């Protein structure tokens, strides 16, 4: 079996960009929680769209 590389992680920084651009050392915890809540909301409400 060969080594599998995730295609998104492989291209990150080359042909793709980061999904989140909010990283800030001072407010990291608050922004992380908010980001997770938003992603969860979008997955629950808009996956069928």
Could you walk me through the main structural features you see in this protein, from its secondary elements to its overall organization?
By secondary structure, the chain is mainly α. It has a domain of 29 residues. 49% of the residues lie in helices and 0% in strands. The longest helix has 19 residues. The radius of gyration is 15 Å and the shape is extended. The protein starts with 6 loop residues before the first helix and ends with a helix.
Task: Sum this structure up briefly.
The chain is an all-alpha fold.
The tally of strands reads 0
> For the report, how would you describe the main beta sheet?
none
* Mean model confidence by pLDDT: 78
Overall geometry: extended
**Percent helix:** 40-55%
Low-confidence stretches: none
Structural class: mainly alpha
- The N- to C-terminal Cα distance equals 37 Å
**How many helical stretches?**
2
């Amino acid at each position: 079996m060969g080594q599998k590389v995730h295609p998104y992680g492989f291209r990150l920084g080359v042909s793709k960009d980061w999904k989140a651009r909010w990283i800030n050392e001072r407010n990291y915890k608050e922004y992380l929680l908010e980001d997770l809540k938003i992603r969860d909301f979008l997955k629950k409400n808009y996956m069928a769209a």
